[in-house]
User: Which sequence fits this backbone?
């Protein structure tokens, strides 16, 4: 096979097939030989349901994967920032560069965004060779491995979330959800100067890892009481975290309806809430809390200008140690088992190795 690729045809139906090696037609494009692809919750959702808002089909299967790192294999004639052999992290979506959002500096909102593994037309990184513009590849420092390079994508989400929240030194932050993105949000919040970062999750083992990942001088953790109402759990967290007025900032990285509801009761008056986790498209929402507390409520969609650069800088300086999040690595041929591993909640981050010669 020239370009082995893992294609999804529908729920629980994936095949390894050969696709053509991508040809460089735009002189600013590059081809990356993929070293690793990470598994995230959206991959599992695709595996189980065949898509989220748009779906794959027997007629239009899709190569999966969007968290990736690799080596530059070929470059366009006008690429000056990269050469074959460079090690890079991949930003898996690139915009049109011409629309109102792109020109305003918010390219992540581009309506013509081409994002890896986004049906029906944009194939993903779970292949041997992947094509994208050179300026959406980021050189990895010598002290960052390919595996750690994969984690630049979720860390960029965390950095973007923290920037959306406008976290300032001394503020108190609560994160709902201690998965990969939640952990990245928490670590980024700490580096932006938060004096206290607390994490909430229903799984004790995740919180144990979160506490070691954040450091006990900053980190706090707690689980909700499943029999409590959102208001009661909010009161519980206020006591658990010793935040009598509530936190200044809440970032929800879970997407769970009950987490969003609890957050509205937990946050302090005048606080800022950022929705990063994706859950049900429609939920019951205590809107009166937003009005009466005069909250600032923002969304967070992927990442924007400078988020990958800052992520790489933080990791290369040793400020955020992402290597500890990698708990399992599976060969390319076992991609579906990697998705199943994540579905079962085993470990923190599972990686899929690239195609071997």
Assistant:
């Amino acid at each position: 096979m020239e370009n082995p690729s893992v294609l999804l045809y529908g729920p629980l139906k994936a095949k390894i097939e050969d696709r053509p090696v991508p040809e460089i037609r735009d002189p600013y494009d590059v081809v990356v030989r993929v070293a690793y692809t990470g598994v995230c919750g959206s991959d599992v959702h695709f595996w189980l349901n065949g898509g989220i808002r748009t779906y794959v089909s027997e007629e239009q299967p899709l190569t999966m994967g969007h968290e990736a790192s690799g080596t530059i294999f070929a470059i366009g004639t006008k690429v000056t920032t990269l050469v074959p052999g460079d090690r890079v992290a991949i930003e898996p979506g690139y915009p049109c560069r011409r629309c109102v959002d792109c020109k305003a500096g918010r390219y992540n909102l581009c309506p013509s965004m081409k994002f890896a593994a986004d049906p029906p037309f944009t194939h993903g990184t779970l292949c041997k060779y992947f094509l994208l513009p050179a300026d959406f590849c980021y050189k990895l420092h010598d002290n960052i491995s390919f595996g750690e390079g994969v984690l630049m994508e979720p860390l960029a989400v965390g950095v973007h979330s923290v920037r959306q929240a406008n976290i300032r030194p001394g503020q108190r932050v609560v994160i709902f959800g201690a998965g990969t993105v939640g952990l990245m949000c928490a670590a980024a919040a700490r580096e932006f100067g938060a004096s206290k970062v607390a994490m909430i999750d229903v799984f004790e083992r995740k919180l144990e890892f979160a506490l070691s990942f954040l450091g006990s001088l900053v980190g706090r953790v707690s689980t909700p009481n499943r029999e409590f109402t959102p208001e009661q759990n909010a009161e519980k967290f206020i006591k658990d975290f010793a935040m009598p007025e509530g936190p200044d900032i809440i970032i929800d990285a879970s997407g769970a309806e009950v987490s969003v509801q609890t957050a509205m009761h937990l946050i302090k008056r005048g606080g800022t809430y950022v929705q990063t986790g994706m859950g049900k498209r429609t939920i019951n929402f205590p809107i009166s809390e937003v009005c009466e507390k005069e909250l600032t409520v923002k969304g967070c969609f992927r990442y924007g200008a400078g988020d990958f650069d800052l992520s790489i800088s933080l990791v290369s300086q040793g400020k955020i140690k992402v290597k500890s999040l990698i708990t399992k690595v599976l060969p390319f041929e076992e991609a579906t088992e990697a998705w199943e591993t994540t579905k079962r909640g085993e470990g923190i981050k599972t990686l899929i190795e690239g195609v071997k010669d």
